[in-house]
Amino acid sequence: MYIVQIASECAPVAKVGGLGDVVYGLSRELQVRGNHVEIILPKYDCMRYDQIWGLTKVYDDLWVPWHGGAIHTSVWHGEVYGLHCYFIEPHSQDNFFNRGGFYGYLDEVRRYTFFSKAALEFLLKSNRRPEIIHCHDWQTGIVPVLLYEVYKDAGMWDQRICYTIHNFKHQGVTGMDVLWLTGLGRPEYFMRYEKMRDNFNPGAVNLMKGGIVYANFVTTVSPHHAWEARSTDQGFGLGPTLQTHQVKFDGVLNGIDYDVWNPEIDGYIPSRYNVDTIQDKYGNKEALRNRLMLRNDYKPIIAYVGRLDMQKGLHLVRHTLFYCLEQNRAQFVLLGTSPEPHINAYFWQLKHHLNDNPDCHLELSYSEELSHLIYAGADMLIMPSMFEPCGLPQMIGLKYGTVPIVRAVGGLVNTIFDRDYSDKPVEERNGYVFHQTDHAAIESALDRAIGLWYLFPDQFRTLMQNGMRYDFSWNHPGARYLAIYDYIRHK
User: Fold this and answer.
1) Which of 259, 281, 338, 389 is the most buried (most CB within 10 A)?
2) Has this prediction a pTM greater than 0.85?
Protein backbone atom coordinates (compact mmCIF):
# COMPACT_ATOMS: atom_id res chain seq x y z
CA MET A 1 0.00 0.00 0.00
CA TYR A 2 1.23 3.53 -0.80
CA ILE A 3 0.71 5.78 2.23
CA VAL A 4 1.56 9.46 2.68
CA GLN A 5 1.63 11.04 6.13
CA ILE A 6 1.10 14.82 6.26
CA ALA A 7 2.03 16.28 9.65
CA SER A 8 3.60 19.24 11.40
CA GLU A 9 6.01 17.01 13.36
CA CYS A 10 8.05 13.85 12.96
CA ALA A 11 10.65 12.68 15.48
CA PRO A 12 13.55 13.13 15.68
CA VAL A 13 13.84 15.94 13.11
CA ALA A 14 10.85 18.04 14.20
CA LYS A 15 9.54 16.99 17.58
CA VAL A 16 7.69 19.07 20.16
CA GLY A 17 5.51 16.39 21.75
CA GLY A 18 3.92 12.99 21.29
CA LEU A 19 2.70 13.82 17.77
CA GLY A 20 6.27 13.62 16.46
CA ASP A 21 6.82 10.23 18.10
CA VAL A 22 3.57 8.85 16.67
CA VAL A 23 4.23 9.97 13.09
CA TYR A 24 7.71 8.43 13.20
CA GLY A 25 6.76 5.24 15.07
CA LEU A 26 3.66 4.48 13.00
CA SER A 27 5.41 5.23 9.70
CA ARG A 28 8.27 2.93 10.57
CA GLU A 29 5.90 0.12 11.57
CA LEU A 30 3.93 0.51 8.33
CA GLN A 31 7.16 0.42 6.32
CA VAL A 32 8.42 -2.67 8.16
CA ARG A 33 5.17 -4.37 7.16
CA GLY A 34 6.02 -3.87 3.48
CA ASN A 35 4.16 -0.65 2.66
CA HIS A 36 5.61 2.32 0.80
CA VAL A 37 5.48 5.27 3.22
CA GLU A 38 6.32 8.92 2.61
CA ILE A 39 6.08 11.79 5.09
CA ILE A 40 5.47 15.45 4.17
CA LEU A 41 6.64 18.07 6.68
CA PRO A 42 7.33 21.81 6.74
CA LYS A 43 11.01 22.70 6.20
CA TYR A 44 11.60 24.45 9.52
CA ASP A 45 14.89 26.29 10.01
CA CYS A 46 15.11 24.80 13.53
CA MET A 47 14.85 21.13 12.51
CA ARG A 48 17.47 18.59 13.52
CA TYR A 49 19.25 18.63 10.16
CA ASP A 50 21.88 16.26 11.57
CA GLN A 51 19.16 13.57 11.62
CA ILE A 52 18.40 13.88 7.89
CA TRP A 53 20.47 11.96 5.35
CA GLY A 54 20.92 13.09 1.74
CA LEU A 55 18.82 16.26 1.92
CA THR A 56 18.31 17.33 -1.69
CA LYS A 57 16.01 19.73 -3.49
CA VAL A 58 13.77 17.56 -5.69
CA TYR A 59 11.11 20.00 -6.88
CA ASP A 60 12.09 23.62 -7.35
CA ASP A 61 9.21 25.11 -9.26
CA LEU A 62 6.04 24.38 -7.30
CA TRP A 63 3.63 27.30 -7.46
CA VAL A 64 1.04 26.91 -4.71
CA PRO A 65 -2.25 28.79 -5.32
CA TRP A 66 -2.74 31.19 -2.42
CA HIS A 67 -4.93 34.23 -1.80
CA GLY A 68 -5.75 34.78 -5.45
CA GLY A 69 -2.12 34.41 -6.52
CA ALA A 70 0.54 31.76 -5.98
CA ILE A 71 3.60 31.28 -3.75
CA HIS A 72 6.79 29.86 -5.23
CA THR A 73 7.76 26.77 -3.22
CA SER A 74 10.60 24.25 -3.21
CA VAL A 75 10.36 20.67 -2.00
CA TRP A 76 13.30 18.81 -0.49
CA HIS A 77 13.79 15.11 0.09
CA GLY A 78 15.85 13.36 2.74
CA GLU A 79 15.87 10.12 4.67
CA VAL A 80 15.22 9.97 8.41
CA TYR A 81 16.34 6.55 9.64
CA GLY A 82 15.19 4.94 6.41
CA LEU A 83 11.92 6.90 6.11
CA HIS A 84 11.37 9.03 2.99
CA CYS A 85 10.59 12.59 4.08
CA TYR A 86 9.63 15.56 1.90
CA PHE A 87 10.04 19.08 3.26
CA ILE A 88 7.94 22.02 2.04
CA GLU A 89 9.87 25.31 1.73
CA PRO A 90 7.81 28.35 0.68
CA HIS A 91 9.63 31.42 -0.68
CA SER A 92 7.48 34.31 0.47
CA GLN A 93 7.62 37.40 2.63
CA ASP A 94 5.46 35.57 5.19
CA ASN A 95 8.55 33.54 6.10
CA PHE A 96 6.28 30.77 7.40
CA PHE A 97 8.86 28.26 8.68
CA ASN A 98 12.06 30.28 9.27
CA ARG A 99 11.38 31.57 12.75
CA GLY A 100 13.63 29.64 15.08
CA GLY A 101 10.71 27.68 16.60
CA PHE A 102 7.96 25.29 15.63
CA TYR A 103 4.84 26.81 17.18
CA GLY A 104 3.63 29.88 19.03
CA TYR A 105 3.05 32.49 16.32
CA LEU A 106 0.07 34.75 15.72
CA ASP A 107 -0.38 33.54 12.13
CA GLU A 108 -0.35 29.84 13.06
CA VAL A 109 -3.48 29.08 11.02
CA ARG A 110 -2.05 30.72 7.88
CA ARG A 111 1.22 28.82 8.26
CA TYR A 112 -0.35 25.39 8.46
CA THR A 113 -3.18 25.90 6.00
CA PHE A 114 -0.53 26.96 3.49
CA PHE A 115 1.50 23.85 4.36
CA SER A 116 -1.60 21.65 3.89
CA LYS A 117 -2.37 23.23 0.53
CA ALA A 118 1.27 22.94 -0.58
CA ALA A 119 1.42 19.25 0.41
CA LEU A 120 -1.59 18.44 -1.80
CA GLU A 121 -0.28 20.62 -4.62
CA PHE A 122 3.02 18.73 -4.47
CA LEU A 123 1.24 15.36 -4.66
CA LEU A 124 -0.81 16.59 -7.62
CA LYS A 125 2.01 18.17 -9.63
CA SER A 126 4.56 15.42 -8.97
CA ASN A 127 1.96 12.86 -10.04
CA ARG A 128 2.01 11.06 -6.70
CA ARG A 129 -1.19 9.16 -6.08
CA PRO A 130 -1.09 7.49 -2.67
CA GLU A 131 -3.90 5.15 -1.80
CA ILE A 132 -4.02 6.64 1.72
CA ILE A 133 -3.29 10.13 2.98
CA HIS A 134 -2.97 10.15 6.77
CA CYS A 135 -3.03 13.61 8.33
CA HIS A 136 -2.78 14.72 11.95
CA ASP A 137 -4.28 17.31 14.33
CA TRP A 138 -5.74 20.73 13.54
CA GLN A 139 -2.65 21.77 11.55
CA THR A 140 -3.69 19.47 8.69
CA GLY A 141 -7.45 19.39 9.33
CA ILE A 142 -8.10 21.29 6.10
CA VAL A 143 -6.39 18.57 3.99
CA PRO A 144 -9.55 16.38 3.68
CA VAL A 145 -11.61 19.48 2.85
CA LEU A 146 -9.22 20.60 0.11
CA LEU A 147 -8.89 17.10 -1.31
CA TYR A 148 -12.62 16.55 -1.76
CA GLU A 149 -13.62 20.10 -2.68
CA VAL A 150 -10.66 21.08 -4.91
CA TYR A 151 -8.11 18.38 -5.72
CA LYS A 152 -10.58 15.59 -6.44
CA ASP A 153 -11.67 17.40 -9.61
CA ALA A 154 -8.04 18.14 -10.53
CA GLY A 155 -7.17 14.45 -10.77
CA MET A 156 -6.89 13.17 -7.18
CA TRP A 157 -10.22 11.37 -7.12
CA ASP A 158 -9.07 8.01 -5.79
CA GLN A 159 -7.26 9.02 -2.58
CA ARG A 160 -8.70 8.17 0.84
CA ILE A 161 -8.01 10.07 4.06
CA CYS A 162 -7.48 8.90 7.62
CA TYR A 163 -7.41 11.84 10.07
CA THR A 164 -5.93 11.39 13.56
CA ILE A 165 -6.66 13.82 16.40
CA HIS A 166 -4.02 13.81 19.11
CA ASN A 167 -5.32 16.78 21.11
CA PHE A 168 -8.89 18.08 20.95
CA LYS A 169 -8.04 21.20 22.92
CA HIS A 170 -6.41 22.92 19.94
CA GLN A 171 -8.79 22.95 16.96
CA GLY A 172 -7.68 25.69 14.59
CA VAL A 173 -10.68 27.96 15.14
CA THR A 174 -10.24 30.94 12.84
CA GLY A 175 -11.95 33.52 10.67
CA MET A 176 -13.55 33.05 7.25
CA ASP A 177 -10.52 34.51 5.47
CA VAL A 178 -8.97 31.03 5.48
CA LEU A 179 -11.57 30.05 2.86
CA TRP A 180 -10.34 32.77 0.48
CA LEU A 181 -6.65 32.14 1.21
CA THR A 182 -6.91 28.47 0.24
CA GLY A 183 -9.17 28.94 -2.76
CA LEU A 184 -12.17 27.26 -1.16
CA GLY A 185 -14.26 30.45 -1.14
CA ARG A 186 -18.05 30.00 -0.94
CA PRO A 187 -18.56 30.94 2.74
CA GLU A 188 -22.31 30.36 2.38
CA TYR A 189 -21.50 26.68 1.64
CA PHE A 190 -18.62 25.98 4.05
CA MET A 191 -20.06 27.99 6.95
CA ARG A 192 -23.01 25.66 7.33
CA TYR A 193 -23.17 23.82 10.66
CA GLU A 194 -22.78 20.42 9.01
CA LYS A 195 -19.59 21.59 7.21
CA MET A 196 -16.84 23.72 8.81
CA ARG A 197 -18.70 26.20 11.01
CA ASP A 198 -17.52 26.12 14.62
CA ASN A 199 -20.08 24.54 16.94
CA PHE A 200 -20.14 27.56 19.28
CA ASN A 201 -19.09 30.55 17.18
CA PRO A 202 -21.27 30.89 14.06
CA GLY A 203 -18.77 33.35 12.55
CA ALA A 204 -15.74 31.06 12.87
CA VAL A 205 -14.27 28.25 10.80
CA ASN A 206 -13.11 25.17 12.71
CA LEU A 207 -10.34 23.32 10.84
CA MET A 208 -10.49 20.23 13.05
CA LYS A 209 -14.23 19.97 12.52
CA GLY A 210 -13.64 20.22 8.78
CA GLY A 211 -11.23 17.29 9.04
CA ILE A 212 -13.79 15.20 10.94
CA VAL A 213 -16.59 15.96 8.46
CA TYR A 214 -14.57 15.31 5.29
CA ALA A 215 -12.18 12.47 6.26
CA ASN A 216 -13.05 8.89 5.35
CA PHE A 217 -12.06 7.76 8.84
CA VAL A 218 -11.20 9.63 12.04
CA THR A 219 -9.18 8.28 14.95
CA THR A 220 -7.91 9.49 18.26
CA VAL A 221 -5.09 7.99 20.24
CA SER A 222 -6.82 5.59 22.65
CA PRO A 223 -10.19 3.81 22.84
CA HIS A 224 -11.16 5.43 26.15
CA HIS A 225 -10.31 8.91 24.90
CA ALA A 226 -12.52 8.29 21.87
CA TRP A 227 -15.42 7.74 24.27
CA GLU A 228 -14.40 10.82 26.34
CA ALA A 229 -14.20 13.04 23.26
CA ARG A 230 -17.61 11.90 22.03
CA SER A 231 -19.44 11.84 25.35
CA THR A 232 -17.79 14.29 27.79
CA ASP A 233 -16.34 17.80 27.80
CA GLN A 234 -12.99 16.39 26.66
CA GLY A 235 -14.13 16.80 23.06
CA PHE A 236 -13.90 20.56 23.74
CA GLY A 237 -17.15 21.21 21.89
CA LEU A 238 -16.74 18.66 19.10
CA GLY A 239 -18.74 15.92 20.85
CA PRO A 240 -21.91 16.50 18.75
CA THR A 241 -19.87 16.38 15.52
CA LEU A 242 -18.22 13.12 16.62
CA GLN A 243 -21.63 11.69 17.50
CA THR A 244 -22.89 12.55 14.03
CA HIS A 245 -19.89 10.84 12.43
CA GLN A 246 -19.43 8.07 14.99
CA VAL A 247 -19.61 5.28 12.40
CA LYS A 248 -16.24 6.44 11.07
CA PHE A 249 -14.65 7.36 14.45
CA ASP A 250 -12.56 5.11 16.69
CA GLY A 251 -9.69 5.13 19.17
CA VAL A 252 -6.39 3.42 18.34
CA LEU A 253 -3.89 3.23 21.18
CA ASN A 254 -0.49 4.69 20.34
CA GLY A 255 2.60 2.52 20.59
CA ILE A 256 6.15 3.16 21.76
CA ASP A 257 9.40 2.37 20.01
CA TYR A 258 11.10 -0.53 21.79
CA ASP A 259 14.29 0.11 19.81
CA VAL A 260 14.53 3.33 21.84
CA TRP A 261 12.73 2.48 25.09
CA ASN A 262 14.04 -0.90 26.16
CA PRO A 263 16.17 -1.59 29.26
CA GLU A 264 17.76 -4.62 27.57
CA ILE A 265 19.52 -2.46 24.96
CA ASP A 266 19.34 1.09 26.37
CA GLY A 267 22.67 2.84 25.81
CA TYR A 268 21.82 5.65 28.25
CA ILE A 269 21.70 3.46 31.36
CA PRO A 270 24.68 1.88 33.14
CA SER A 271 22.96 -1.40 34.08
CA ARG A 272 20.87 -3.20 31.45
CA TYR A 273 18.22 -5.72 32.47
CA ASN A 274 15.08 -7.58 31.44
CA VAL A 275 12.10 -9.21 33.13
CA ASP A 276 14.24 -12.17 34.27
CA THR A 277 17.21 -10.09 35.50
CA ILE A 278 15.17 -7.37 37.13
CA GLN A 279 17.51 -7.19 40.13
CA ASP A 280 19.99 -5.42 37.81
CA LYS A 281 17.58 -2.47 37.68
CA TYR A 282 18.92 -1.38 41.08
CA GLY A 283 22.30 -0.50 39.59
CA ASN A 284 20.43 2.28 37.77
CA LYS A 285 18.77 3.41 41.00
CA GLU A 286 22.20 3.85 42.55
CA ALA A 287 23.44 5.71 39.46
CA LEU A 288 20.38 7.99 39.52
CA ARG A 289 20.97 8.85 43.17
CA ASN A 290 24.62 9.61 42.48
CA ARG A 291 23.75 11.76 39.47
CA LEU A 292 21.13 13.80 41.36
CA MET A 293 22.94 13.77 44.74
CA LEU A 294 20.13 11.98 46.56
CA ARG A 295 20.63 10.24 49.89
CA ASN A 296 21.47 6.54 49.60
CA ASP A 297 18.68 5.19 51.79
CA TYR A 298 16.23 2.29 51.88
CA LYS A 299 13.35 4.13 50.21
CA PRO A 300 11.51 3.94 46.90
CA ILE A 301 12.04 6.69 44.33
CA ILE A 302 8.87 8.18 42.86
CA ALA A 303 9.30 10.08 39.58
CA TYR A 304 7.45 12.50 37.34
CA VAL A 305 8.69 12.87 33.75
CA GLY A 306 6.85 15.17 31.38
CA ARG A 307 5.68 18.62 30.44
CA LEU A 308 4.79 20.93 33.32
CA ASP A 309 1.33 21.80 32.09
CA MET A 310 -1.97 22.20 33.96
CA GLN A 311 -3.29 19.29 31.85
CA LYS A 312 -0.85 17.04 33.72
CA GLY A 313 -2.38 17.65 37.16
CA LEU A 314 0.42 19.83 38.53
CA HIS A 315 -1.33 20.40 41.86
CA LEU A 316 -1.15 16.62 42.41
CA VAL A 317 2.48 16.46 41.24
CA ARG A 318 3.35 19.12 43.81
CA HIS A 319 1.32 17.36 46.48
CA THR A 320 3.11 14.07 45.79
CA LEU A 321 6.47 15.79 46.24
CA PHE A 322 5.60 17.18 49.68
CA TYR A 323 3.75 14.03 50.69
CA CYS A 324 6.90 11.98 50.02
CA LEU A 325 9.01 14.35 52.08
CA GLU A 326 6.58 14.78 54.98
CA GLN A 327 5.92 11.05 55.30
CA ASN A 328 9.67 10.39 55.00
CA ARG A 329 8.88 7.13 53.17
CA ALA A 330 9.93 7.97 49.61
CA GLN A 331 12.23 10.15 47.51
CA PHE A 332 10.93 12.28 44.66
CA VAL A 333 12.47 13.14 41.27
CA LEU A 334 11.00 15.44 38.62
CA LEU A 335 12.18 16.06 35.05
CA GLY A 336 10.29 18.58 32.95
CA THR A 337 9.83 22.11 31.75
CA SER A 338 6.82 24.27 30.99
CA PRO A 339 5.76 26.34 27.97
CA GLU A 340 4.14 28.71 30.51
CA PRO A 341 6.55 31.24 32.11
CA HIS A 342 4.56 31.49 35.36
CA ILE A 343 4.62 27.70 35.83
CA ASN A 344 8.36 27.58 35.15
CA ALA A 345 8.88 30.40 37.65
CA TYR A 346 6.87 28.56 40.30
CA PHE A 347 8.84 25.34 39.94
CA TRP A 348 12.18 27.22 39.95
CA GLN A 349 11.08 28.78 43.24
CA LEU A 350 10.23 25.31 44.52
CA LYS A 351 13.60 23.99 43.36
CA HIS A 352 15.50 26.73 45.24
CA HIS A 353 13.41 26.11 48.35
CA LEU A 354 14.20 22.38 48.31
CA ASN A 355 17.72 22.62 46.96
CA ASP A 356 19.44 21.12 49.99
CA ASN A 357 16.94 18.34 50.61
CA PRO A 358 18.68 14.98 50.03
CA ASP A 359 15.38 13.22 49.26
CA CYS A 360 14.24 15.16 46.21
CA HIS A 361 15.53 16.66 42.99
CA LEU A 362 13.79 18.88 40.43
CA GLU A 363 15.46 19.01 37.01
CA LEU A 364 13.72 21.84 35.15
CA SER A 365 14.86 21.07 31.64
CA TYR A 366 14.55 18.21 29.20
CA SER A 367 17.34 15.67 28.89
CA GLU A 368 16.87 12.53 26.80
CA GLU A 369 19.75 10.84 28.62
CA LEU A 370 18.43 11.67 32.10
CA SER A 371 14.88 10.62 31.19
CA HIS A 372 16.14 7.11 30.38
CA LEU A 373 18.05 6.94 33.66
CA ILE A 374 14.97 8.07 35.62
CA TYR A 375 12.71 5.46 33.99
CA ALA A 376 15.33 2.80 34.76
CA GLY A 377 16.23 4.00 38.27
CA ALA A 378 12.86 4.99 39.76
CA ASP A 379 10.54 2.53 41.50
CA MET A 380 7.27 4.28 40.67
CA LEU A 381 6.03 6.87 38.18
CA ILE A 382 3.13 9.28 38.72
CA MET A 383 0.75 10.54 36.02
CA PRO A 384 -2.09 12.41 37.77
CA SER A 385 -3.37 13.95 34.51
CA MET A 386 -6.55 16.00 34.23
CA PHE A 387 -6.84 14.60 30.69
CA GLU A 388 -4.47 12.33 28.78
CA PRO A 389 -5.47 11.28 25.25
CA CYS A 390 -2.96 8.42 25.25
CA GLY A 391 0.15 8.98 27.36
CA LEU A 392 3.56 7.49 26.64
CA PRO A 393 5.37 7.74 30.02
CA GLN A 394 3.21 5.05 31.64
CA MET A 395 3.97 2.62 28.80
CA ILE A 396 7.68 3.41 29.00
CA GLY A 397 7.54 2.99 32.79
CA LEU A 398 6.02 -0.48 32.40
CA LYS A 399 8.80 -1.58 30.06
CA TYR A 400 11.40 -0.44 32.61
CA GLY A 401 9.67 -2.12 35.56
CA THR A 402 8.74 1.25 37.05
CA VAL A 403 5.23 0.94 38.49
CA PRO A 404 2.81 3.63 37.21
CA ILE A 405 0.43 5.45 39.55
CA VAL A 406 -2.14 7.11 37.29
CA ARG A 407 -5.47 8.88 37.20
CA ALA A 408 -8.25 7.04 35.33
CA VAL A 409 -8.47 9.16 32.17
CA GLY A 410 -7.87 8.63 28.45
CA GLY A 411 -5.22 6.15 27.43
CA LEU A 412 -4.24 5.59 31.06
CA VAL A 413 -7.48 3.61 31.44
CA ASN A 414 -6.50 1.40 28.49
CA THR A 415 -2.97 0.66 29.71
CA ILE A 416 -2.83 0.62 33.53
CA PHE A 417 -4.84 -1.88 35.58
CA ASP A 418 -5.03 -1.46 39.34
CA ARG A 419 -3.30 -4.12 41.42
CA ASP A 420 -6.05 -4.23 44.03
CA TYR A 421 -9.28 -3.34 42.22
CA SER A 422 -8.99 -4.27 38.54
CA ASP A 423 -11.20 -6.99 37.09
CA LYS A 424 -8.17 -8.21 35.10
CA PRO A 425 -6.51 -11.49 36.14
CA VAL A 426 -3.91 -10.90 38.86
CA GLU A 427 -1.00 -11.54 36.50
CA GLU A 428 -2.23 -8.76 34.16
CA ARG A 429 -2.45 -6.05 36.82
CA ASN A 430 0.41 -3.60 36.46
CA GLY A 431 0.00 -0.44 38.55
CA TYR A 432 -2.23 1.78 40.68
CA VAL A 433 -5.20 3.84 39.54
CA PHE A 434 -7.16 6.64 41.24
CA HIS A 435 -10.17 8.59 40.00
CA GLN A 436 -10.72 11.92 41.73
CA THR A 437 -8.56 15.05 41.41
CA ASP A 438 -8.14 15.79 45.12
CA HIS A 439 -5.22 15.11 47.45
CA ALA A 440 -6.93 12.21 49.21
CA ALA A 441 -7.30 10.29 45.94
CA ILE A 442 -3.63 10.31 45.01
CA GLU A 443 -2.59 9.76 48.64
CA SER A 444 -4.65 6.58 48.70
CA ALA A 445 -2.90 5.24 45.59
CA LEU A 446 0.53 6.31 46.88
CA ASP A 447 -0.08 4.65 50.23
CA ARG A 448 -1.01 1.37 48.58
CA ALA A 449 2.04 1.43 46.30
CA ILE A 450 4.55 2.52 48.95
CA GLY A 451 3.05 0.09 51.47
CA LEU A 452 3.50 -2.84 49.09
CA TRP A 453 7.09 -1.77 48.36
CA TYR A 454 8.00 -1.86 52.08
CA LEU A 455 5.84 -4.70 53.40
CA PHE A 456 5.71 -7.16 50.50
CA PRO A 457 8.78 -6.60 48.29
CA ASP A 458 8.30 -9.92 46.49
CA GLN A 459 4.76 -8.94 45.50
CA PHE A 460 6.00 -5.51 44.37
CA ARG A 461 8.61 -7.21 42.20
CA THR A 462 5.88 -9.41 40.67
CA LEU A 463 3.90 -6.25 39.88
CA MET A 464 6.98 -4.80 38.16
CA GLN A 465 7.39 -7.96 36.09
CA ASN A 466 3.70 -7.99 35.15
CA GLY A 467 4.21 -4.55 33.60
CA MET A 468 7.40 -5.54 31.77
CA ARG A 469 5.59 -8.37 29.99
CA TYR A 470 3.09 -6.06 28.28
CA ASP A 471 3.57 -5.33 24.60
CA PHE A 472 2.83 -1.69 23.81
CA SER A 473 4.97 -1.63 20.68
CA TRP A 474 3.68 -0.30 17.36
CA ASN A 475 2.84 -3.86 16.31
CA HIS A 476 -0.84 -3.78 17.37
CA PRO A 477 -1.66 -0.18 16.34
CA GLY A 478 0.16 -0.75 13.03
CA ALA A 479 -2.11 -3.70 12.27
CA ARG A 480 -5.19 -1.69 13.30
CA TYR A 481 -4.31 1.24 11.04
CA LEU A 482 -3.71 -1.07 8.09
CA ALA A 483 -7.16 -2.55 8.68
CA ILE A 484 -8.65 0.98 8.69
CA TYR A 485 -6.79 1.89 5.50
CA ASP A 486 -8.00 -1.28 3.82
CA TYR A 487 -11.57 -0.59 4.92
CA ILE A 488 -11.69 2.95 3.50
CA ARG A 489 -9.88 1.90 0.32
CA HIS A 490 -12.64 -0.51 -0.55
CA LYS A 491 -15.55 1.41 0.87
Assistant:
1) 389
2) yes
